[in-house]
Amino acid sequence: MRYRIVLRRRYKTGVFFEGILPVISIIAALLFAGGALLLFGVSPLAAYRAMFRGALGSGYGLSEVIVKAIPLVISGVAVALAFRMKVWNIGAEGQIYLGALASAAAVRFLPSGNQVVMLLAMTAAAIIAGGAWGYIAGFLKSRWNVNEVITTLMLNYVGIHLADHFIYGPWRDPSSLGFPMTPPFPPSARLPLFFGTRVHLGVLAAVLLVLLFRLVIRWTRWGFEIRAIGDNPRAAEYAGINYGRNVALLMFISGAIAGLAGMTEIAGLQGRLQPGFSPGYGYTAIIVAWLARLNPWGIMMVSFFMGVLLVGGDTIQVIMRLPLASVQVIQGCILFSVLGFEFFRNYKVLLLRRERE
Amino acid sequence: MKKFALGLVCLMMVIGVSVAFAFQPVAEKDLKIGFVYVGPVGDGGWTYMHELGRVDMEKAFPGVESFFVESVPEGPDSVRVMETFIRNGARLVFATSFGYMDFVQEVAAKNPEVIFMHCSGYKTADNVGNYFGRMYQARYLSGLVAGKMSKKNVIGFVAANPIPEVIRGINAFTLGARKSNPDVKIKVVWLFSWFDPAREKEATLALIDAGADVIAMHADSGAAPQTAEEAGVYVVGYNNDMSHYAPTMHLTAPIWNWGMVYKHVVGQVTEGTWKSSDIWWGLKEEFVGLAPISDAVPTDIVALVEAEKAKIIDGSWDVFHGPVKNQKGEVVVKSGAKMTDGEMLGMNWFVEGVEGDIPK
Lengths: 357, 360
Description:
The complex is a heterodimer.
Chain A: E1 3-9, H1 15-40, H2 44-56, H3 59-84, H4 92-109, H5 115-144, H6 148-168, H7 202-219, H8 221-231, H9 233-238, H10 243-270, H11 281-291, H12 296-320, H13 324-346, E2 347-353
Chain B: H1 2-21, E1 32-36, H2 46-60, E2 65-69, H3 77-87, E3 92-95, H4 101-110, E4 115-119, E5 128-133, H5 135-149, E6 154-159, H6 164-180, E7 185-190, H7 197-209, E8 214-218, H8 223-231, E9 234-236, E10 250-252, E11 254-256, H9 258-271, E12 278-281, E13 288-290, H10 299-313, E14 324-325, E15 331-333, H11 341-345, E16 354-355
Parallel strand pairs in B: 1-2, 1-3, 3-4, 4-5, 5-12, 6-7, 6-8, 7-16, 8-9, 9-10
Antiparallel strand pairs in B: 11-13, 14-15
Helix pairs in contact in B: 2-9, 3-4, 5-6, 5-10, 7-8
C-alpha cells in the first residue's frame, strides 16, 4: 500500500490556528531547547524559571522588558507598514541611525532650554531624516523600479557610516579625550522617564503608533490602497491606484517611523550619540513584523516577548552560569519553532492513499 | 539664614562624601562579583584573557563567587546587565570595555554601596575606579621585533577603533619598529569594531595585498594571525600568545595579565582598603609583557628587546620620551621632554612612519 503526502493551502483558519497553535509552537520550542540545556548539564526547568523570573518576576525586570520593546515596536510598525504593501523595507536600521543623527543635529544646532520645544525639534528632525532615507529607496522604486531590497539594505551601511563620520569627526565631544561620542545632551533634550525606571516617553509613541497603524490600514482610504496593492498590485493598478506615488510616500512614512525609533532611543536611554547605539533593532524589527504577521497587536506582543528573551537571557547567564550561546540556542529554537508551525497554519497536510495506476 | 543653609549643605556634602568613601571590608564568602564582557569568552583574545584573569582570581579567593555576561553591547543594554548582577547580589562589578564608561557612571550613581571598576576609561566616582595597563610599552618591544623582520619595509596594522588606546599602541609599535629599522612604514586599516573575525581577516588580506610582509594587530580575536599564517606572512599577535593561531609565522605578541588586577582589587575589597583610583600598571609590574619571541628572530634583536625593556622597567626611559615627530615630521615631543599620562591617554595623532588617517 502506497501513500503520498499532499499539501493543501488553507484559506480560512479558526481559533485553533490563531490562538492555540502559537502556544503549542512555543511549548515545543521550550521542550526542544530543554534538550539542548540538558546537554549543557543544567536543568531546563531551573533555567526557564530563572529566565522568566529575571524578566517578569520583578518591577525592574518588567520595566527593562518594556525598555527593550519600545524600539522594536516602533521599528516593527515601520517595516510592517511597508511589508503590508509588499514593499520590502530592509533599511530600518539605517533609517534609525539617520533619525538619531538628525535629532543629535537638532540638539547641536537648535539648542533650546525648553524641553517641549527641544523634543519637538528633535522629533521633527528625526522624522524628516529617517523619512528622507526611506524616500530615496521609494523614489528609485517608483521611478525606475529599482529593487528596494538592495537599496534599503545598502543604505543601512551608508547611514551607519554617515553617523560614524560625525561621531568620530566634527561632532566629537572635545572633552572626551578623542573618544568617539557627541557631547552629552542637555536635560531638555532627554525624554521624561516614568516611575524611576528607564521606561521613557517613547512607550507612548510606541502605543500610539500601533493604534495609528491599525486605524490607517483598516479605516482610511490610503490604508485601503496599501492593502489593495499588497494583495494584488496588478488589480490595484487596474483599479486606478497609483503604485509609484504610493510606494514613494509609503517608504517616506516607513522611514520616518524608524527614524523616530532612533530619536527615542538616544533621547530616552543614551543621552548622546555613540557608535553602535542600536544593536540591530532595524533587523530584529523584520523578525518582529513577520512573527506578528504584520498585525499591530501582534507587533506589541512579539516585541514584548523578544524583550523577555533578552532580559531573561542575562539572568540565565548570571544565575545558571550558562554561556551566551545557550541563551541564543533557546531564542533560536523559539523563533524557528514559531515560524515552522506557521507552515501548518498555511497548509493542510494530507496523507492520501496512492491510487492504482 | 542663607549662610546657615549654605553651611548645612556643605556639612551634608562632607558627611555624604565621607560616608561614600568608607567601604567596609566584605568577607570572601559574601563577595559576589559580576564581569561585563564585550565579546564571547571564546574570542581567543581580549575577552578570553579577561576570563582567564577572572578564573585566576577565583582560585586565589576560593570563597568569592563571580559570574559574567558575554557579548554585551557597549550601549544602554550594559546598564541592565550590571543591574542584573547587583540584583543577584554582586558587590563588585568589572566592566571590561571602554564603551561602558557612561553606563557604569549611571549604574554606580544609583548603587553607591556597590564598587565598580571600569577598564580603559577615564571617569571616576566615589565608587568607581579605573584599571588599564601601559600596553604601549609592550607594543614598543613588539615593534622592535617586527621592524627587523620586515624585508619590504612595509608592516600592516589591523586596528580596531580609532580611539586613543589603539592610536597609542600603533604609535608605540611604530617607534619600536623604526628604531630597529628606520626605513619601515606602518600601514593602518581601521575595523571600527573590537570583535569581527571576518573583517579582521579581510583587513589582513588587504594589507598583505598592499605589500605588507609583517602584520600587527589590535583586535579581539585571532583571525589576523590565522590569516597571516595561511598567507605565509610574519605576524605579531595581541592579548595572549597567539602562536597556536600562527605556529610558524608568529613572532611575538604584547600580552595582558588581567588576573593581577582582579586579585589586587578583590584583595582590597575584602580588606576594606578599596578606594577609587586609576590603576595604570606596565612592564615593571608585569601587568603587560611579551609572549615568547620566535626562534626566527635574530639574537641581536632579542638582546635589543631585553635592553630596551630593562630601561623601561628601571624608569630611566619610556616610549614617548622626546624627540617624537608626528606624521608631517614636526617635532611634537621635544628632545628631553616626555609625554604626561594625561597626554598619552588622549593621544589623537600618529607618529612619523605611520601611513593612514585618524577619522576626524
